[in-house]
Amino acid sequence: MTQLLRLDGLNRAFGGRQALKDVTFDVAPGRLTGFVGANGAGKTTAMRIILGVLAADSGSVTWGGAHLTREHRRRFGYMPEERGLYPKMTIRDQLTYLGRLHGLTAGAVARNITGLVDRLGIGERADEQLEKLSLGNQQRAQIAAALVHEPELLVLDEPFSGLDPIAVDTVMAVLREQTARGVPVLFSSHQLDVVERLCDDLVVIGDGAILAAGRRDELRAAFTLPRYEIRVDGDAGWLRDQPGVTVVDLDGPRAVFDLAAGRENEAAGRENEAAGTEDQAVLREALARGPVRAFGPVAPSLAEIFREVAR
Ligand SMILES: Nc1ncnc2c1ncn2[C@@H]1O[C@H](COP(=O)(O)OP(=O)(O)OP(=O)(O)O)[C@@H](O)[C@H]1O
Predict the structure, then answer these.
(1) I need a surface site. Which of 244, 270, 271, 297 has the fewest CB within 10 A?
(2) CATH 3.40.50.300 fits 5-220, yes or no
């Protein structure tokens, strides 16, 4: 049965170095959670603790409120950073072995494998040795290995790294099937564009500490100033002189600018009165100078937000 996975106050040091600092976040049922951070930020360490490969110094990981046991973890699916399949074995043999290890019947395993390799686009390669496949296809096989026993939770360390855009879409469709049946999915990535496009929830980690966690759209709203785009007929340079306006990008008649609204106001909602008044004031000023062809709020990309929270 799918549940909520909760990491609560996890700490872990290696030697004198604190790799995780009071790490707390949830991975909710049926949601795809992107775990983003630079190299060495602590993503792999946190994932290993979830899977019990590594122990935390303090803090807890719970599944539906219960402390994790070996039995819970047996029903999780994990794609480790170091990958885990044998190069010399065929994909089908390895997946069969893993499925049987997890207690599935031979018939169920065979059915699952056929479905998975087909959907992952490696159906025709399933009887080849792993090492004979391209790196992208090897990665698809690793993902199949995490899924073959119909896990209740999926934890994937960099599942999209090294995949071409078509493979990203293929893998994504398979992960979406999992969330559709209620499975919580946690995946780590450096590829912010991928995370931005794909995830429902987002956890940003920097130097072992959680910098932001929550719904993607809410994070966008909470971590950014009200940002607007305007297109006029003439040059939009006059915007630079407007009170409360910070021009982010100016290219002749087109400009992107932030409005100086308090962060607390902004977190409370974009429609707050102060921001509403200011954006209309800028629009009126623009109209007084000539035709306005476009005016409206723009959502900054996650990459921009990430730069902001990682400062
Ligand atoms: N077994 C270990 N022994 C010593 N230090 C470790 C060990 N595992 C991780 N670390 C250190 O802990 C910190 C976090 O590493 P971790 O691998 O969790 O980061 P990451 O976010 O997964 O980065 P990457 O994307 O590069 O794998 C790093 O400074 C790393 O060097």
Answers:
(1) 271
(2) yes
